[in-house]
Amino acid sequence: xxxxxxxxxxxxxxxxxxxxxxxxxxxxxxxxxxxxxxxxxxxxxxxxxxxxxxxxxxxxxxxxxxxxxxxxxxxxxxxxxxxxxxxxxxxxxxxxxxxxxxxxxxxxxxxxxxxxxxxxxxxxxxxxxxxxxxxxxxxxxxxxxxxxxxxxxxxxxxxxxxxxxxxxxxxxxxxxxxxxxxxxxxxxxxxxxxxxxxxxxxxxxxxxxxxxxxxxxxxxxxxxxxxxxxxxxxxxxxxxxxxxxxxxxxxxxxxxxxxxxxxxxxxxxxxxxxxxxxxxxxxxxxxxxxxxxxxxxxxxxxxxxxxxxxxxxxxxxxxxxxxxxxxxxxxxxxxxxx
Amino acid sequence: xxxxxxxxxxxxxxxxxxxxxxxxxxxxxxxxxxxxxxxxxxxxxxxxxxxxxxxxxxxxxxxxxxxxxxxxxxxxxxxxxxxxxxxxxxxxxxxxxxxxxxxxxxxxxxxxxxxxxxxxxxxxxxxxxxxxxxxxxxxxxxxxxxxxxxxxxxxxxxxxxxxxxxxxxxxxxxxxxxxxxxxxxxxxxxxxxxxxxxxxxxxxxxxxxxxxxxxxxxxxxxxxxxxxxxxxxxxxxxxxxxxxxxxxxxxxxxxxxxxxxxxxxxxxxxxxxxxxxxxxxxxxxxxxxxxxxxxxxxxxxxxxxxxxxxxxxxxxxxxxxxxxxxxxxxxxxxxxxx
Lengths: 338, 338
Known about the structure:
homodimer; alpha/beta; Quinone Oxidoreductase, Chain A, domain 1; Rossmann fold; 2 domains; seven-stranded mixed beta sheet; six-stranded parallel beta sheet; 12 helices; 19 strands; globular
């Protein structure tokens, strides 16, 4: 088959690769109905995160199970399934505590920008939909594989409660779906920080009540202003830079909650500032597996439409254009059809 | 009167000072039954925290109200009261959320190592005991003014639950009372990190089930070992250094809680490490006022004896010896009798 390989920064190729095979008895092979490009794929694409060798890309996936290993008991060929970027056994103490992305046997899933994918620990990792979904649900189910689950974790980790005032830093797919998630959890006021008109519009359609275009100290001042000097109850940091973290911490009320769900790149936190800001801080790789049954339910019953973050759909072989469009912020998120 | 002034590092003097007076209508003047030296007083005493001018010292206090301003309505002369290091109005939104130490009108209380003290915002800050306490309860009531309240916040901020495995970093008065607090909240296993025999003994009397003498990477390994490689559910960091924070973060299970209650000095946190450790982080200046009614109840009913952390009692005029004894770790905490 052909699959997506990043050779060096900016050099994405769709090229011949070996077909995936069952390697362990707990593996499954999934034929992908759709896959996509992640904001986090742009870190190595832009050369900010080093890659040491040509690397198969992609970690968001859904599709039909083709084959399972001998040890797989709950997942079977023919099912439509969704998994996430960390394979997990879903039985270890960390999984039982709801932190499947810190599973003691976790494995990074890679190479999903391809027609077929090997998923380790299939029983623990994959969740099947009630039946084969109609085509129009596929984008939202694919979003549940990562960006919706990550936005949901952002809201959950920041303890968003009914009536809360929430601010979201970052207007990428995760930030937009953090808005949607906060809305689902009952937030009354949702402040989206964005300078991009199309993204502001989508944020509003997902439940944002206010838009803040300012950044840094001005952005903090604007949120303090909007909250009568108190700060937001919860700030969901969906970027992962020094500036975005500082903005989140500065915009939260004492006793409030900051969540951070994008891998921090070169971010250092001054503990004394955190101390006197009095905030709660929680984040990490989103335990998407914990939320998948809930997210699938919401999508299946058409209560939410997280698939709207895909504003570009391309045939898989045009994956390089998907990267370019996202890198240049021409697209929020590119869906790829094998 | 005579009061305690720090002139420069190591130079503590008990010298003539003006008597405190009512300055605002919301003030009270308290005649102190007891006061003490705080671990945090050692930062400027040791020259780690700069002092720019001769500074009145002390922020832990309990005693009899002598006089109140015209605007004070709930506190009256003759009552025995306890307050904490931040005066707070106890009515602003931050106070109502339980973060009185971030009160919008907070004022640092200083100069409590003296016979008499002016306390601002008396109605919001001071809590009266049911009646004048017998003398043997005074040390425990004084401990509630800061170190017990701070240890309690450490356990509460780390969400200590019945059955939990808890580790406490730091064997000062706050760490020891964090052990006591975790025990009160139902922790099943409490690991105290200490190399000091007398403190280990007091930790055990307060509920510690295990003692770990190792520090740094070895200390983390020992806790991982004691918890079968999972890490502790909650780690209570009661020191405030880079090493103690690293130890706390490294010893916590994914999804677990790290609290930190000592002002961090020169501590920088790598956000990517925090991210992949998957911990919750919460701390700050303890909102002792939130807990005072509970703590007074516990002391009054003799369920707890936090006053045992005072292993040295001196007449107030010997305050300099109290600083020396704590600096040299000859004493855990020095109580001073005016």
